[in-house]
């Protein structure tokens, strides 16, 4: 069968990771990526063999810097079946009419409003809703983390309600203009935070409320989650469910995995590129059951958690895998994504 021809528009934190993940898929071809700036990232992409394109009014800027480009975004869209839009939040919607004009299916990111796409997406929760769609929005990193654990828990229990607090990282490591440097910032002060609404774009009937603060770290987000279940479920069953769910790792604090810094150090020890952790990490010791209430703490590596979902979304819109299980098997094997306990 012919491989799915894919473009990536926007080659930043998410775009470069998704592009590299596409290169590892047996059923996909990375036809090219679009960069706006003729900088070191563009030069490195070229030297890594990634075909580079730019916006039509930027071609000269690349030539002036002697960075070879294959053509414009429009040239690239002529050649592909799917575009992954990884431009900054809100920019993707500006491109939507162009993608439609070229008859190219589009995967958008969580920084876009839900209306940008026909469906908001998380593989474990609603893979089949995205089958054959023209546009899909992969929800943002915090929402992806919440959805993974909620949909895992839903396998063994009916969830009555979820209340969760997001402790958000201040910026990604490469960003130099964001803060706070020395404060904890309610985000927003007026409750609730937007994350629950985003979860509801995938699970519309779930009773969920979220709050958030931003803290001075770049490594990962941390969530403190409380769920009330319709029936009582044992801690053992909850641990077993998380343990058996793809893309969830359980971290054992008694082995020293007590913070996001330890998780990142472990990813470094694994030799993972950019210390990426596309798995959701749940602290084993934090999982507690009080009657029908369950609580746990989980960590989200914001730069990489949505990468596997982007790959699955490509398969979904092209109907190249009929079920979540089928796409997860390929994506997780090719990207080395684990589940179970660390280590
Ligand atoms: N960084 C994160 O933690 C996460 C980000 N997201 C979402 O992913 C999307 C992308 O975010 P990041 O990768 O973090 O942003 P980024 O700023 O790292 O990357 C965006 C890239 O798009 C380029 N760009 C800017 N304007 C463009 C245009 N008009 N056409 C083509 N390219 C353009 C920028 O130069 C940059 O290379 C956003 O919707 C964001 O909300 C989702 C999950 C996590
Ligand atoms: O935390 C994130 O999004 P989310 O809180 O909407 O899930 C992403 O990392 C992007 O966050 P940003 O808008 O602080 O760059």
UniProtKB/TrEMBL annotation:
PROSITE patterns: GAPDH. Belongs to the glyceraldehyde-3-phosphate dehydrogenase family. Residues 4-141 form the Glyceraldehyde 3-phosphate dehydrogenase NAD(P) binding domain. It comes from Pyrodictium delaneyi. D-glyceraldehyde 3-phosphate binds at residues 140-142, 195-196. It is an enzyme of class 1 (oxidoreductase). It comes from the Archaea. Pathway: Carbohydrate degradation; glycolysis; pyruvate from D-glyceraldehyde 3-phosphate: step 1/5. It catalyses: D-glyceraldehyde 3-phosphate + phosphate + NADP(+) = (2R)-3-phospho-glyceroyl phosphate + NADPH + H(+); D-glyceraldehyde 3-phosphate + phosphate + NAD(+) = (2R)-3-phospho-glyceroyl phosphate + NADH + H(+). Its EC number is 1.2.1.59. GO terms for molecular function: 4-hydroxy-tetrahydrodipicolinate reductase; glyceraldehyde-3-phosphate dehydrogenase (NAD+) (phosphorylating) activity; NAD binding; NADP binding. HAMAP family: G3P_dehdrog_arch. The gene is gap. Keywords: Cytoplasm, Glycolysis, NAD, NADP, Oxidoreductase. NAD(+) binds at residues 13-14, 111, 169, 302. Homotetramer. This is Glyceraldehyde-3-phosphate dehydrogenase. One of its GO terms (biological process) is lysine biosynthetic process via diaminopimelate. It is found in: Cytoplasm. The active site is at 141 (nucleophile). GO terms for cellular component: cytoplasm.
């Amino acid at each position: 069968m012919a491989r799915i021809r894919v473009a990536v528009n926007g080659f930043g934190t998410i775009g470069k990771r998704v592009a590299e993940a596409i290169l590892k898929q047996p059923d996909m071809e990375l036809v090219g990526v679009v960069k706006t700036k003729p900088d070191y990232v563009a030069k490195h992409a070229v030297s890594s063999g990634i075909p580079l394109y730019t916006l039509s009014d930027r071609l000269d800027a690349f030539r002036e810097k002697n960075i070879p480009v294959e053509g414009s975004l429009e040239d690239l869209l002529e050649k592909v079946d799917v575009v992954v839009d990884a431009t900054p939040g809100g920019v993707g919607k500006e491109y939507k009419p162009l993608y439609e004009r070229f008859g190219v299916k589009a995967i958008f990111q969580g920084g876009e409003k839900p209306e940008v796409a026909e469906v908001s997406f998380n593989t474990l929760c609603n893979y089949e809703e995205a089958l054959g769609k023209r546009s899909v929005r992969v929800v943002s990193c915090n929402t992806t983390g919440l959805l993974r654990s909620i949909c895992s828990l839903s396998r063994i229990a009916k969830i009555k309600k979820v209340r969760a607090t997001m402790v958000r990282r201040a910026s990604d490591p490469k960003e130099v203009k964001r803060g706070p440097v020395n404060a904890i910032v309610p985000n927003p002060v007026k409750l609730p935070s937007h994350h629950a609404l985003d979860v509801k774009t995938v699970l519309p009937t779930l009773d969920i409320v979220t709050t958030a603060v931003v803290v001075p770290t770049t490594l990962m987000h941390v969530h403190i989650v409380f769920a009330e279940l319709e029936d009582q479920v044992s801690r053992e069953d909850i641990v077993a469910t998380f343990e058996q769910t793809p893309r969830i790792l359980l971290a054992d604090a008694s082995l020293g995995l007590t913070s996001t810094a330890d998780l990142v150090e472990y990813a470094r020890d694994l030799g993972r590129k950019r210390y990426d952790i596309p798995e959701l990490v749940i602290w084993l010791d934090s999982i507690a059951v009080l009657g029908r209430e369950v609580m746990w703490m989980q960590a989200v590596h914001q730069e990489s958690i949505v990468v596997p979902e982007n790959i699955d979304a490509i398969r979904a819109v092209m109907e190249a895998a009929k079920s979540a299980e089928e796409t997860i098997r390929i994506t997780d094997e090719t990207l080395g994504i684990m589940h179970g306990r660390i280590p």
